[in-house]
Design a protein that fits this description.
Elements (H helix, E strand, L loop, with lengths): L28 H13 L12 E5 L9 E8 L4 E8 L9 E16 L6 E12 L16 E12 L4 E8 L5 E2 L11 H6 L9 E9 L20 H4 L4 H22 L1
Antiparallel strand pairs: 1-2, 1-9, 2-3, 3-4, 4-5, 5-6, 6-7, 6-8, 7-9
Amino acid sequence: ATGGRAIPSHAPPRRTSPASTQPRDAPSMMILASLALLSLVSPARAEVPALITGTWRMTGMPRDNGEYLYDEFTQNANGDYTGKGWGTWDVPVSGTNNYTSSGVTSDVVCETDATTGAVSLRYQYSMILDHDLGANPRPSWNTPSGQKQVICGYNTYDTTTDIMTLTTYNHEDTTIALSVDPGACPATSNTAATTSGWWTSTATVYTYECVANCADWACDSTDSTNPLVVEDAESAGVGKPGVGAFRSLVATLVITLALWYRQ
């Protein structure tokens, strides 16, 4: 089975007692070390280029011998995305096999051809699939806990038909651990098809159309020279709203305490 883009403070009160006439000690090494650690483990989330954001629906359905019926995904500006779809891959009586997908789009580079003006996009994305849904759940098809799929994506766009073509190359392993970074995708789809690496050399091609909240198909001013990097789903806390707030609170407390000691 396949699917899902086929393959997301308050400082403590200031001390109000009279200031001591004795000089205060310099900030401890523990505080400085804490600040340095926070700067490493709490990088800012980068935004993906606007042209890929919005909700996209796969065209040319059904496919895969009539078994693959529907797929769509919504790409958010902060790098994470969600999707859904269904097919009849293993339905003995009636109904469909439904799934949802989620993951993070990272290492995004948008380029404009100097001669033709054609805009292309390359990136890497992770995917976690949940098939344990609907009237015909298939939990054995789910992405295993603690694992992810990793795919290289290369997008082009036909401004006449308003169709986006996505060419993908999967990781040679079906899934890898959430914490593993396999490395960068090849610079072009042709390179991915003709060189060896952690990706497979067999391409799968899908076409999508925008159905909601999409932007013009054009690169941002800095896309080509500054590839955008987004943390993976686990380290970035995608789907965990409290992670960012907790980091902000801890950082604020540590910085405030350091400033208090300097006074």
